[in-house]
Amino acid sequence: MMDRASGVSLRNHGTLGANIARVFAIAAALTCGIIDRTANAAATLDHATYGTTQGGQAVEIFTMTNDHGLRVRFLSLGGVITEIDVPDRSGRPDNIVLGLNTLREYETLPGHFGAITGRYANRIGGAQFTLGGQTYHLIANNGVSSLHGGPNALDHQVWTVSPTPAPDGVAATLTYVSKDGDQNFPGTLTAHVTYTLTNDNALRIRLHV
What we know:
1 helix; 5-stranded antiparallel beta sheet; 15 strands; 6-stranded antiparallel beta sheet
């Protein structure tokens, strides 16, 4: 698939909902390999090396598999969801996530495919806002506006990923500390995002600060 606006070639195995932060259910039955396993009954959280950023930070890819074999994969870079593998009408597993092919593409190409955006989602007109009587001038990355937190926002950061107890499946919590002045936003923000893949085939995403 070709993005006509940017000329970027995309990997397209189907469609994903417009908002990855909402809860949705997907039926599945497939198998997956084991790398470094943290087991919760039959559900597993595995991880492997994915690559190194241009700034020299190691990035890992995590695989969550529930006890029915439904598989979700994501990166420590921006929490990017790279795969949701479900069976087609013939029972063959396939990826339904629209995304890119390499770490370098996720770092450099336009778009926010499957990533955690912030500190602000959508545009801030004129790349500025006033809070408590003080005007903050942000970094413009969409014409004169600031889009999705700026050019080097949460989707371009390597998050810490920790296994999280999930009695009904498997979960992982991503954590990132955005320091005061990051992308010219005021105040330090500690963000937590928990991905939970339940054994009744629901992917839940919870964002909390």
